[in-house]
Amino acid sequence: MRIIVTGFEPFGGEKINPSLQSVMKISDKIDGVDIIKLEVPTVFHKCDEVLAHEIEKYKPEAVISVGQAGGRNGISVEKIAVNSANASIPDNAGNMPVNEKLQADGKDEYHATICIDDIVDELRENGICANISLSAGTFVCNDIMYNTLYLAEKKYPHMKSGFIHVPYLPEQVINRPSVPSMTLDEIVKSLEIIIKTVINKIKNDNV
User: Fold this and answer.
1) Domain coverage including residue 151
2) Which residues belong to the active site?
3) Is 30 helix (H, G, I), strand (E, B) or coil?
4) Which of 2, 18, 19, 45 is a Cys-bridge partner for 7, taking CB atoms 3.0 to 4.6 Å apart?
């Protein structure tokens, strides 16, 4: 079994991105499953191309993408991705789409196919602030979530997919005293719990 976990490069003037830093620190193997860690560009459509190449190469049982959501105070497990690209800031290639469809023949929205309720329960049982979010936004985080689910529907129906938003790191909020943050170690712990939960669900479903 293989699981791909993606993190984004820094964007929006930030020098670091907690999604990428945390993804690169998770274990290479969890519960006997190979974890393929992938950096993706914070660029509309390009992130999907990079991920699609790795999906074709590894044929994973699941893809878990991770992104930064500055201002959130815990782990957000996204439920819904929408067929819309609508940016309030440029991506890292200068693209700034307005009300553009991600896929002409795609559904208006896709729902995560990883076990989001189980994930939130496990995180909370481990003392980690977590919730189900109903909006992944319309920036590049939503782009990769939507297009991975779209790709699964069209080409890899066995593959589970979902998206996790993580807060800022403490060093990102030094000059933002009222903005919440989470330590890197806690984010890494959270992601490993999420991965274990997804693995257990897949294994139990295959029994």
Assistant:
1) 2-205
2) 78, 141, 165
3) strand
4) 19
CA–CA–CA angle 46, 1, 35 (5° rounding): 55
**DSSP output for 24-66:** TTS-SEETTEEEEEEEE-SSTTHHHHHHHHHHHHH--SEEEEE
| pLDDT number for residue 13 | 87
CA-based torsion, 171, 17, 83, 134: positive or negative: negative
Tokens (6 digits) for 33? 């499953």
Is 138 in a helix, a strand, or coil? coil
| Model pLDDT for residues 120-141, shown as the tens digit of each residue | 999 999 999 999 999 999 999 9
Residues 6+ apart with CB under 8 A from 207: none
Counted domains in the chain? 1
SS3 of 77, please?
strand
Q: List the structure tokens of 16.
A: 């670091």
What CATH number is given to the structural domain containing 44?
3.40.630.20
Paired residues of 33 in beta bridges = 30
**Burial letters for 133-159: b for 16+ Cβ neighbours within 10 Å, e otherwise?**
beebbbbbbbbbbbbbbbbbeeebeeb
